[in-house]
């Protein structure tokens, strides 16, 4: 970051304010005096504000923040664009589209439209189109590039706004104030410093004044981005090393576990394969002889033929029993028949006696 003295600011005309009839009473604390109907800015306070703004920008970039440069005045357009391109930050130099911050979705849609038109113009489809269609597409693309050329790759909202001339960029300041985005702005004696988080009181109309302040701020941003890039590279390298070390530790632990498992298996196998001494074997044999296990007599299973004979015998037995019962019943019946004539003879004898 370049060092600047009060003489450099005086040479650039930073101390000149607006006319006495065009001023804001809130800027009274930053006014040193009046000369020829023009307010003179206190450059000692401006130096302190510049130092504080540079420190703030460096801290925001060290935390990974992004910056948006805003300057649509003719005197500020080229300076702001060069500073933004030098620091690889975003910029708006032609026109601040309403809702660039508060309605960022529509801005992204217009950016996609711009990219689609560029693809159509670069492709072979443009050869088959009419001249009128091609001219309308080129007109649209030029307009979109002019308004969105500095923010087409802005994926998220910026962390800080650097604004030149708060009075002309009041819409940008209002959007940033609504979203609570800090603003570093060059303000003159006719501006309102209430919505500016880091004001830099200076002449916002002279080209030299704008150039010296923007270059100082861009230098601080550039040094901070370089340091942040180195920090990011170191952090990535450290993270990769930590991952490699963790992977090595995990691999070593796994190898140790495998070795322990193999050792346990080998020990178990060795314990199972140990040879029993002869004396122990003799004792075991003596024990088996003295204590013989009780054996239960198992009947041999009958053969199939014997089973068949048993079945046939069982079937024939009831038939024979039936025959014997019939034979036993026959003499009983004969005895009953013999007894019947005897009874009749007795009856006849009784009749005769009578």
Features:
10% strand, Rossmann fold, 3 domains, 5-stranded parallel β-sheet, 354 residues
Report the CATH superfamily of the largest domain. Glucose-6-phosphate isomerase like protein, domain 1
What is the molecular shape? Answer: elongated
What is the share of helical residues?
55-70%
What's the rounded overall pLDDT mean? 82
Can you count the helices?
9
Q: Secondary-structure element sequence?
A: HEEEHEHEHHEHEEHHH
Report the CATH architecture of the largest domain.
3-Layer(aba) Sandwich
Question: How much beta, percentage-wise?
Answer: 5-15%
Q: What is shown here, in short?
A:
With 354 residues, the protein is an alpha/beta fold. It contains 9 helices and 8 strands.
Describe this structure as you would to a colleague.
The protein is of the alpha/beta class and 354 residues long. It has three domains: 203 residues, Rossmann fold, CATH 3.40.50.10490; 55 residues; 37 residues. Helix content is 61%, strand content 10%. It contains nine helices and eight strands. The strands form two sheets. A five-stranded parallel β-sheet has the order 5-4-6-7-8, with helices on both faces. It has a three-stranded antiparallel β-sheet with strand order 1-3-2, with no helix packed on it. Helix 4 crosses helix 5. The termini are far apart.
């Amino acid at each position: 970051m370049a060092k600047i003295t009060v003489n450099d600011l005086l040479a650039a005309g930073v101390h000149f304010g607006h006319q006495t009839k065009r001023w804001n009473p809130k800027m009274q604390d930053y006014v040193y005096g009046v000369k020829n109907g023009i307010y003179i800015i206190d450059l000692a306070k401006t130096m302190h504000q510049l130092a504080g703004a540079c420190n703030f920008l460096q801290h925001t970039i060290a935390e990974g923040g992004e910056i948006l440069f805003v300057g649509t005045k003719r005197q500020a357009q080229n300076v702001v664009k060069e500073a933004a391109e030098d620091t690889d930050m975003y910029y708006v130099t032609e026109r601040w589209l309403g809702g660039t911050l508060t309605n960022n979705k529509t801005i992204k849609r217009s950016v996609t439209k711009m990219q689609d038109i560029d693809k159509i113009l670069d492709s072979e489809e443009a050869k088959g189109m009419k001249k009128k269609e091609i001219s309308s597409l080129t007109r649209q693309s030029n307009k979109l590039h002019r308004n969105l050329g500095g923010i087409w790759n802005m994926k998220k909202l910026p962390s800080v706004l650097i604004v030149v001339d708060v009075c002309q960029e009041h819409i940008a300041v209002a959007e940033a104030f609504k979203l609570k985005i800090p603003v570093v702005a060059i303000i003159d004696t006719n501006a309102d410093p209430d919505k500016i988080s880091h004001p830099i009181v200076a002449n916002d109309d002279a080209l030299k004044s704008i150039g010296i302040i923007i270059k100082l701020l861009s230098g601080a941003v550039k040094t901070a981005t370089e340091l942040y890039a180195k920090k990011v590279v170191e952090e990535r390298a450290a993270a990769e090393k930590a991952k490699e070390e963790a992977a090595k530790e995990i691999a070593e632990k796994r190898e140790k576990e495998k070795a322990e498992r193999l050792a346990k298996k080998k020990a178990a196998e060795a314990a199972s394969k140990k040879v029993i001494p002869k004396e122990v074997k003799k004792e075991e044999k003596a024990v088996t002889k003295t204590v013989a296990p009780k054996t239960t007599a198992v009947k041999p299973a009958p053969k199939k033929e014997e089973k068949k004979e048993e079945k046939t015998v069982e079937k024939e037995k009831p038939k024979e029993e039936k025959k014997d019962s019939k034979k036993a019943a026959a003499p009983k019946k004969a005895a009953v028949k013999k007894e019947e004539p005897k009874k009749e003879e007795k009856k006849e004898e009784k009749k005769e006696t009578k």
